[in-house]
What we know:
By secondary structure, this protein is an alpha/beta fold. It has one domain: Peroxisomal Thiolase, Chain A, domain 1 (3-Layer(aba) Sandwich). Helices cover 33% and strands 20% of the residues. Helix 2 packs across helix 5, helix 6 crosses helix 12 and helix 9 packs parallel to helix 10.
Amino acid sequence: MTGFAAAITGIGLVTSAGVGVPANWDRVVAGQGTAAVDPELDGLPVRISCRVPDFAADNAWKFDRYTRFALAAAQEALRQAGLDPSGWEGSRVAVVIGSGAGGTASLEQQHRELLEGGPSTVSPLTLPMGLLNMAAGQVAIEFGATGPCLAPCTACASGATAIGIGRDMLRLGTADIVIAGGAEAPVTPFYSAAFARMRALSRNADPETASRPFDVARDGFVLGEGAGVVVLESEEHARARGADTLARVIGYGASADAHHATAPHPEGRGARLAVQAALADAGLTGRDVGYVNAHGTSTPMNDRVESAVIRDLIGADVPVSSTKGVTGHPLGAAGAIEAAFAALAVRHGVVPPTANLTDPDPVADIDLVFKAARTGRIDVALSNSFGFGGQNTALLLAA
């Protein structure tokens, strides 16, 4: 193994599987789906979502839901890392929090206010709540992180891109600590209607099994929400303060399909380039990978194309699963959430199953893990993330 490794010393998760890493990991390993009929989507073509349960509404008047997810996940990650923001040198702490949509619920609400009540009814907090960079900005404000603060948007790869950029910051010496991840709260009437019009969402009559990656009966994804945040440090910095390294980010690759706004390249050209770049970055071959956390959206084309990429570059016998069977698709947060799950898989030697997968599509000629988790040593895991616009990110996580 060559190249630079960033230590993950803290993880924070907020998803439809629960608030906090323990709740998330337990449900993902159990393979229990979370999709349900959503009363807030009444009257729309698709009424299924994967919402975060029992999430406290503190500061709802000034923070969009996606920002509150990011703050909660960052708080958990910092707590696990054993870092006290009140005592650190903030200029050496960077924040990179990606999102695909930003504060869409706030923007939708304020647009309604404008149409129904006129300009004087629009909140002066509309832009501080709705802008795409505000989760990153508010995390930096909350924790006194005065280093670089970035908000990458690569659609559904945003959270993974943020982690890759965070690792590169450490490699370049731009920061000693990076709070990196993704946050999204797109379960709104506008977003649901838009995705439904594209026929991207599942219309399965049984909500609990609607998100079924790689299944022959899959018919689209289930809209989800949440945040995933990791604390990244150089291995030297982590060792110097006696921190426990949960896993390491050892490879990062990014690419563009340059093909279509929403459809993946039919031969997975961009996805292949991203995975190959991550492997080259880490100085590894596909045979070194012991688990793949697939992008696995549960859409017919993505699952077919991704399966071929995994088979050709990693191997048909490497365990593969998609945790979107549990969480649905939280768009720009997905890559960070799934990188966290991949890190936990390496940490605990457990491959989570693909929830709701009962009849694997024959075109997915790979070793799909379903029905039950598998245990065993995992030295290296690959986490794939692909987004609209043909933007692709691959991360390699190691023990």
